[in-house]
Structure formats: structure tokens, C-alpha cells
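Pilot study result, target chain (221 residues):
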Amino acid sequence: MRRVLPFVALLAAACTTAPPQAAPDTASVPATMTTTTVAPAELAPKRIRAAVLPANALERLGVTEPGTDSDRHRPQLPLPCAKPKTSGQDVFGYHVPFARKWKNSRMEFNHLVTWYEDRTGAEAVAKTREMAESCREYVYSTRDVGDLTIHVTAPVDLPAPAGVSAAYAYCEDNGTNHACWGLIAHGDLMATLIVFSASHERSLGAVADMLPDAAALLLKD
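Predicted structure:
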């Protein structure tokens, strides 16, 4: 069995603390009413969880969710061609992500949904596209195997689901392992499908297969 891509760490993103809850303006509220004001970031986890594929979504692809608490799966933002010290927070500002992961002996499949505080999902897609098309290859340093030369193929042909505000896809490989990203946006959310395997065609095919399902959940928001 081939190992999962060693450059999966490229996608690591910062987890930040939600801003404080806004206080209601009690002076303008009648005494007979009760008002609760919640900051958008406090609502985002429920919204983004609802937009992530359910645990059994990939059964037809023969990929299952590992028996772990998906809340503990660290979300990963796409950062193609990024400098070593670049983080998701540096590039996209404050955001709240949630991800789930499925895998078998042939591939690993990730679905990430991210809420952005100061930009739309379409703007996040555009920024990712800008990064992906800024280089054809770059060097990524890993602790286990040293420097890896990552080749970028951007864009790749992937039909955009109806109704989304933006869509984009690109792939990376290190000569042996392949990863493809499919990004779609709606409102202040961006959904990202990420597949790692030993084949470009397999990775891109799995993203294309599940993209309509991911879009249907995203558009329910």
C-alpha cells in the first residue's frame, strides 16, 4: 500500500479563537422581550457542519470514514505555491473551518467547508486560484523525507455545479503521489474536496464524482 502524500502538510491551516459575543442593545428592547445576539463566528460551526458530506457519503466509492472523532480532524486550507511560513490565517484572515476525512488503501478523501469573516467564498476561491497559477513547481521541506519538488497543474477541467458563485480545480504531484482540489463557493462559505492517491486520474475523478453532492449541501445554506 502506498503512503498518503507526504506533502499533505501543505494544507495545514491555523485554528483561531472566535471573536467575543456581541452584547444586545438593551436600551432599545422592550422589557417584555428577550433578545439573544450571537456573533456570526458562533453560528458558523453549525452552518459548516451541515454543509459537510455525511459519514456514509462515499460508500459508493468504497471509501469509509476512519473510526475517529471527526471533530478532532484538523481542517486544512489549500495553499498552493505558498512560502514555507504562509498560513491560512495570513492569506485568508479570520475563518472557521470544519473537515471530515475518508480513506481506503487506494485514496484519501477530505471534505472541508470554511466560513470567512471578511470575504466571500468566491473571493477565497479567486485567491486560491491566484496562488495555484503563480508557479509550476515549488519546493516543500518535510521533516521525514527532506525537500520535495511539488508540480502544480492549474487549472484542471472540472465542470462547475449549477448555482455556486465560483468554482475552481487544480492538482499537485511529487512524481509519485497525486492530489487534486475542487473548490466551490456560496455566500461566505467555500467547500473544498481534496483527494490523495497514486493516480492523477483517480484523484480528479473522485473529486468530480462527489462535487455535485458537496454543492447540493453548500447551496442549502
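One observation from the pilot: The two ends are 39 Å apart (CA to CA). A full batch analysis is planned for the follow-on phase.
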